Amino acid sequence: MAEDIKxxxxxxQSFEKPTQKKGGFLKAVIVxxxxxxxxxAVLYAVSQYTKWDVLGLKKTAATNPATPGFFGPTGDWxxxxxxxxxxxxxxxxxxxxxxxELSDIYYLQVQNVPIQPAQPAxxxxxxxxxxxxxxxxxxxxxxxxxxxxxxxxxxxxxxVMFYEDLTVDSPVIKSIEDYKAKQAAQ
Length: 186
Prior knowledge:
The chain has 186 residues and is of the alpha+beta class. It has helices spanning 2-16, 24-49, 171-185; strands at residues 78-82, 87-93, 101-114, 133-141, 152-154, 160-165. It folds into 2 domains: 22-58, no CATH class; 78-116 and 131-185, SH3 type barrels (Roll).
């Protein structure tokens, strides 16, 4: 009977003292932290890759005059590198579109420029072409070609390898400004 009383006392004490699992609190904190990180990651992805700015991460036009886009904000002038090796310089818009728009377009062309002048005509032969030439890169305004395309291009984004913002002191920008100044003077 003493044993039964002892068992009953032990049983009563077990009801009075809640059982504590070791590390239970720590596990709960870890689970909560993991859930919080997952929720933040989903909200960040929604803010970055959709038009919804859930976390307020995107800059607005009031705080950033540059054009916002899928790949980040862009400056005034970009160099757009295509998969076919062509590089265009211009103002890139709607970079998140399937067909980003490039306007005010220029590109580089290799031309053979004579090193020595042509020989004057002598007798019946006429003017002789220059014997030596060298290759030179020349900036060409898009739209001056024979078929006179509009100065706007919609580029399949699958063909854009990458683009770069050009700085104000870029030689390309300086050449574009010189070209525009000459056109305005004419």
